[in-house]
Amino acid sequence: MILMKTFLTVSALLLLIVADARAERIIAGMVRGVYDGDTVLLATREDSRLKVRLYGIDAPETAKPDSPGQPFGEISRRTLMYKIMGRQVSAEVMDVDQYHRTVAVILYTGRDINREMVAEGMAWAYRQYLQGPYASEYIGVEEMARARHKGLWRDANPLPPWEFRHAQEIGGKRRGRR
Fold this sequence. Notes:
This protein is of the alpha+beta class. It has five helices and eight strands; from the N terminus they run H-E-E-E-E-H-E-E-E-H-E-H-H. A hairpin with a 5-residue loop joins strand 5 (88-96) and strand 6. The chain is globular.
């Protein structure tokens, strides 16, 4: 009997540790802005306004005043707006990035919005930053979207956003040297 209680206690503690490792904390908020297909603005009680980068995905770049956008950049942004703009969501905080944005998995009515964006071909699984169960899940739905030619996968060879940004950065440096 004591052995069984010890086993159950240890099992419960392990479950808590594993669950806690998945997200640092959960923040509830209303989506007040969608910058692009992977970045939103949440209005929260705690932090008032919080810029959130969707964890594990990278959406095509949208046009900026000083740089062009990518194919599907605006469609990706509008898709994310349609899904969560003005809605109460939960953000499972995973990290804070180099630009001081909260990096999180966005949940709306129990749905993983990050995963949906990849599954619909509106974003890539961002392999460089994916870990644990999210890696296999997001990569798997990306492969299905690619096979079904969904969203950005309609193009024969879409350019990943990280390569697009790198090319823009190199181009900007060349223009600045003249």
